[in-house]
């Protein structure tokens, strides 16, 4: 997972998406450091350390840095916590100047896959954007294909969302990639970027169809995760 995350960081850096690249570098190297700490085989430790050193010293990673230390806000969502709907997390950053949104989440997939309702969650995310106060005109979604027989249902469901958004004057651009990793990154054209450790699917299933929290996500219990917030003006490339 750590190696795949760093690989994604390189891809983002080559695409000049520097702030997202730095997030991936940090997370990937952090994962590898955890492996080094847990590994008892000294030969493996040495190989891992050499690889980490290589990534830390290569130009792509070295030229990226934060400008002043005020770049980062982290929100910790505890297990079974409530009060963390999309509105609570995102609306502080969705100012009236926001007209374009980018979403990366590999699990916007089939609605019936085990324990995941990410298509429904993506609809809720889009509903938040449509309600404002931002004036979103374009949403870019990058996700991965559902595995097996669920692919056609996934595609048709996304096309349905696309058509529904068109009725509200919003264009949804959909792209698929096999290389994005298990995370969700949202970027807004006002410079804010939000990364959620579990992606959009950090809510637990309601206890029943008619239980409190089944409709209002502020009352829905959450899985434990972290939310990291960055702004492009606090990152630089030399």
UniProtKB/TrEMBL annotation:
CDD domains: MIT_C
Protein's UniProt name: MITD1 protein
GO BP annotation list: midbody abscission
Gene: Mitd1
Domain annotation MIT: ranges: 2-57
Pfam families registered for this protein in UniProt: MIT, MIT_C
Highest rank taxon of the organism: Eukaryota
All residue ranges annotated as the MITD1 C-terminal phospholipase D-like domain in the record: 83-231
SUPFAM superfamilies in the record: MIT domain
One cellular-component annotation, GO: midbody
């Amino acid at each position: 997972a750590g190696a795949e995350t760093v690989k994604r960081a390189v891809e983002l850096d080559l695409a000049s998406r520097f702030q997202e690249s730095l997030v991936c570098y940090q997370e990937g190297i952090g994962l590898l450091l955890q492996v080094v700490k847990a590994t008892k085989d000294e030969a493996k430790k040495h190989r891992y350390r050499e690889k980490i050193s290589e990534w830390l010293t290569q130009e792509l990673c070295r030229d990226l840095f934060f400008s002043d230390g005020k770049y980062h806000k982290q929100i910790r969502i505890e297990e079974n916590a409530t009060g963390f709907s999309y509105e609570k997390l995102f609306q502080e950053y969705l100012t009236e100047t926001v007209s374009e949104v980018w979403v990366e989440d590999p699990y916007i997939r089939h609605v019936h896959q085990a324990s995941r309702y990410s298509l429904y969650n993506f609809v809720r995310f889009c509903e938040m954007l449509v309600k404002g106060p931002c004036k979103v005109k374009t949403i870019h979604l990058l996700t991965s294909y559902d595995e097996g027989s669920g692919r056609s249902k996934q595609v048709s469901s996304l096309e349905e969302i696309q058509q529904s958004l068109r009725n509200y004057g919003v264009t949804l651009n959909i792209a698929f990639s096999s290389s994005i990793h298990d995370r969700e990154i949202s970027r807004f054209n006002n410079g804010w970027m939000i990364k959620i450790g579990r992606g959009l699917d950090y809510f637990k299933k309601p206890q029943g169809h008619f239980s409190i929290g089944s409709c209002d996500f502020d009352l829905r219990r959450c899985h434990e995760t972290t939310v990291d917030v960055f702004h492009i003006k606090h990152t630089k490339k030399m």
